[in-house]
Amino acid sequence: MHLGLIGLGKMGANMRARLREHGIDVTGYDRNPAVSDVADLAALKAALPAPRAVWVMVPAGEITDSVVTELADLLDEGDLVIDGGNSRFTEDFAHAEVLAARGIRFVDAGVSGGVWGEEFGYGLMVGGADDDIAELMPVFDALRPEGPREEGFVHVGPVGAGHYAKMVHNGIEYALMQAYAEGYELLAKRTDLISDVPATFKAWQRGTVVRSWLLELLVDALEKDPQMDDIEGYVEDSGEGRWTVEEAIANAVPVPTISASIFARFVSRQDDSPAMRAVAALRNEFGGHSVKKAPAGE
User: Fold this and answer.
1) Edge-to-edge, what's the strand order for the sheet holding 53-56?
2) Which one of 49, 131, 200, 252 has the fewest beta carbons within 10 angstroms of its own beta carbon?
3) What is the mean pLDDT of each run of 10 residues along the chain (298 residues)?
4) Domains observed in the chain
5) Would you name the residues annotated as active-site residues?
């Protein structure tokens, strides 16, 4: 199979590498000519056999909108566009409609795995027509982790379902990170009792009910910077947590834990705290998200 890939940033470049390692031909396009395989989208189209499959891996919102609009004018009837970014699920309906007017198919893919996905594989949650998903299974199988397909891939439902599932996934992620971070602050406060905070978290990695990949990443972050001295406790949010809470309100579903984790991020932008330094460090570990360096002397 030959896939077009638009967007060769942190995740896009790693996805291209993993796909190629697993036997998928990939032609990538990025505005940065140093990493792009072709000069422009017209050249990308020319490089792909029909019917074409083009994966869009660019920031959600206006940039994704503009790329989808450009592809609607460029691609041919029967081609297929996959949005693998963090678009809001409601945007999928609009994108599918724009493309369908030109006879172009659309699939939405929620992708988790961050900067580690090239090595370990990506968790995939996809939405779209059964035939379209079946056509793309060689790509999904190359991207997902090794092992049983159902443990790293799910066809959630029709268009919009993939990004909806990813939205809820990220809402849960917010809450898990906040719980670990608050535990870190409690341990760090009691230096009279707790002599080695990183070792305490490390000991939880085997046999305990709180073990997880996020815990492993927190241990990695603490081993690099045990007191989190190099990180300011300022934490951004990329949107999915807010959307999860908004969807919960719309459906009268109580999500107090996820809601609290969102508000904690807002608090972090007003006052630095050890817990929010831990959340910032976790986001950097799994996703390569930028952190604010603490001012010198702190």
Assistant:
1) 25-29, 2-6, 53-56, 80-83, 105-112, 123-127, 153-157
2) 252
3) 96 97 98 97 98 97 97 98 96 98 98 92 98 98 97 98 97 95 94 95 96 94 86 80 95 96 82 75 77 55
4) 2-158 (3.40.50.720), 167-287 (1.10.1040.10)
5) 166, 173
